[in-house]
Design brief:
binds nicotinamide-adenine-dinucleotide, ten-stranded mixed beta sheet, 12 helices
Amino acid sequence: MSRKITLIPGDGIGPEVSDAARRCIDATGVKLEWEEALAGGAAIEKFGNILPEETLNSVRKNKVALKGPITTPVGTGFRSVNVAIRQALDLYACVRPAKTYAGVKSNYKNIDLLIVRENSEDLYAGIEFEEGKQETKEIISLIEKLNSKKIRPDSGISIKPISITATRRIVKFAFEYAIKMGRKKVTAVHKANIMKFTDGLFLKVAREVAQDFSGKVAFEDVIVDNMAMQLVQKPHNFDVLVLPNLYGDIISDLCAGLIGGLGIAPGANIGNDLAVFEAVHGSAPKYKDMNKVNPTAMILSGVLLLRHIGELKAAESLEKAVSEVISEGKSVTYDLKPDPKDPSAVGTSGMADAVITKLRK
Ligand code: NAD
């Protein structure tokens, strides 16, 4: 019997890269049935709703989804469909592997990092107060009363909640994932020296959780600014990183930079029993319908999906096929060519075809 997976094509380049990934996953021979569900621009057109309940229900039912990037409408007050999906489905762990593949332009070699980012709170909780509004004035005067610190009256305010509950589950997730993936060390990243009650709490709870895994996986902590420098200078010193939401967002893009850019960086958003797999990159609207961009990040997100559903052999063959196509450097998109203007670059679908040919060999 085939297993159902929700497919959310997304906006901009989303439909092209998700179609490429779906074809490659199917070519591994694993029997999957794709249930298409809309979010983003296509959902507004069809349902007048950027994130229809039907789409969330499809993921709740099938437990696993492959999702293309979705454009965040500017100036509508709506934050981000991507954040809304993570929050609605409580996908609290964002996992982003950063691995170098031979043939990709990068200043680094043999990088194999795993970034685990907390997805549900921190400054991304969406608790914000706009400058000049009555409620903002009230918040400012309450804070001044309770904290005796002055806040400029023309300030906007964003709230940063970090809880014991969310920290404990993300750090536990990082350790368990490290064990599952045969990793040796977890590094907690924070700014506990400055934000004692939020990052300080994160660090304290991380240390407590680490004790439960002592002897199995090593643990250390590094302050986020120092981490940014160390990752650039000696990335090989690190293995699994666990971070609160905002630092996780920034550091995972830094790590995508280490391995050659967004075109090849996959990701997963994982909750207790639901998981949505998606590339780190966005919808790159200027490349929409051009059959031009690199499908690798989405295909590698498919590798993570296959591993998640226990199809380890298929995951391994697909990753090997992608890595061979990249290292041969022939049937690859413009961004993987030494000269991006190289006319021999293939399009999104052409690169997927090359991966499929490898799988069939
Ligand atoms: P982006 O990642 O879409 O594109 C930035 C640049 O990166 C592109 O112009 C392109 O040069 C390069 N790039 C991205 N993907 C590539 C690929 N597969 N192959 C080759 N090059 C690639 O970032 P942006 O322009 O800041 O965002 C565009 C939209 O995407 C925004 O609305 C943003 O909110 C949204 N976004 C969505 C997600 C998501 O759905 N998870 C993530 C990030 C951004």
